[in-house]
Amino acid sequence: MAAKSKLGQNFLRAPKAIERIIAALGPLGTRTVVEIGPGKGAITEGLAAQAKHLITIELDRELAWMLQERFSPEKGFHNVTVCRQDVLGFDFAAAAKVAEESLLVVGNLPYYITSPILLRLAASAAAIDRAVLMVQREVADRVTARPESRDYGLLSVTLQLYGSTEPLLTLPPEAFAPPPEVHSTVFRWIFAPRFSELGVEEAAFIAFLKQCFAQKRKTLSNNLRAAAQSADRIGDAFVTTGISPQIRAEALTVEELAAIWRALSR
Ligand code: SAM
C-alpha cells in the first residue's frame, strides 16, 4: 500500500527510537495509552505488548482496517481498541472518564496538523498525564524553547502553560519510509496546568498571549495597544510589575507575562 503524503504518512523504521519512545512514557502495565496515527503499527506493537489498554486513532480507513485485523482478540490482543477517526475529533476527556484515570498519549504525528493536535491536547490537559510526541524538529525547538532564545514564542508559552516540555531525541529523514524533507524530534510533555498557580484565567490569558505575540518585531506595549488595550492601563501595568515598556514578549517568562495580565485585569 503506497504512503499517502497528504495524510502525513512517513512510517518509522528505527527500532531503537521506537524503544526509547515507549520507555519515555514510563511503566504501562496499569495504564490506558492513546496512540495518535498508528499507521502500520511500528510503535503500536510495543505499546500493545505492555499497556493495560491501548486506544489507537487512525484516520486512514485501510490502515485502520489492517490494524484491527493485526491487533484483534483472534490474534491474542484483548487490550487494543482501533478508532478509525480524525484525532481532532477524539474526545480525550471521555476516554479518561471511561479509563477512570488520566491518559498517556503517544504518536509520530502527521506533520500537516501538528499545531492543531498540540492545541487539542492542551485543551484536554485535565485528561492527560503525559505525552511523548514526534514532530518536525523546528516545531520541537519552538515547543521546548526558553525566553530570549530564537525559537521562543506563542507556541512555547502556550504549551509550557500546560506543563513542562523536554526534547528527547532527533532523527534524520532516513529513519522513515518514505523519508520526510525534515528532521524529526521526539519530545516529552508532562501535563501540569499552571493557571491557578499563576493567578490567571485560562481562556482570557490565552487570548492575552495571542495579543502579546501578535507581531514579533513590536514591543509588548505596542502589541497590546494594537489590540485596543488602553494606553494608560498598559502604562500602569508596566509600572506595577516593574517590567520595561520597551520589552518584547519574546524576552518574558510566563510568570512575567502573567504578572502583566493580572495588573491589566485589576
Ligand atoms: N505511527 C506510525 C509510524 O510511526 O510509523 C505512522 C506515523 S505517520 C507520521 C502519521 C499517521 O497519522 C499516518 O498513519 C496517518 O494516516 C495518520 N493520520 C493523518 N491524519 C490523521 C488524523 N487527522 N487523525 C488521525 N490519524 C491521522
Protein topology:
Elements: E1 11-12, H1 15-23, E2 32-36, H2 44-50, E3 53-58, H3 61-70, E4 80-84, H4 92-99, E5 103-108, H5 114-123, E6 128-136, H6 137-143, H7 154-161, E7 163-171, E8 176-177, E9 184-191, H8 195-198, H9 202-212, H10 220-226, H11 231-241, H12 254-265
Parallel strand pairs: 2-3, 2-5, 3-4, 5-6
Antiparallel strand pairs: 1-8, 6-9, 7-9
Helix pairs in contact: 11-12
The structure holds S-adenosylmethionine (SAM).
Would you mind describing this structure in some detail?
The chain folds into two domains: 5-193, 3-Layer(aba) Sandwich (Rossmann fold), CATH 3.40.50; 198-265, Helicase, Ruva Protein, domain 3 (Orthogonal Bundle). Strand 5 (103-108), helix 5 and strand 6 (128-136) form a beta-alpha-beta unit. The model has no long low-confidence stretch (mean pLDDT 96). The longest helix has 12 residues, at 254-265. The protein has twelve helices and nine strands. 38% of the residues are buried. It has helices at 15-23, 44-50, 61-70, 92-99, 114-123, 137-143, 154-161, 195-198, 202-212, 220-226, 231-241, 254-265, and strands spanning 11-12, 32-36, 53-58, 80-84, 103-108, 128-136, 163-171, 176-177, 184-191. The chain starts with 10 loop residues before the first strand and ends with a helix. It is elongated, with a radius of gyration of 21 Å. It has 266 residues and is α/β, with parallel strands linked by helices. Strands 4-3-2-5-6-9-7 form a seven-stranded mixed β-sheet, with helices on both faces. A two-stranded antiparallel ribbon has the order 1-8. Bound molecules: S-adenosylmethionine. S-adenosylmethionine binds next to strand 1 and strand 3.
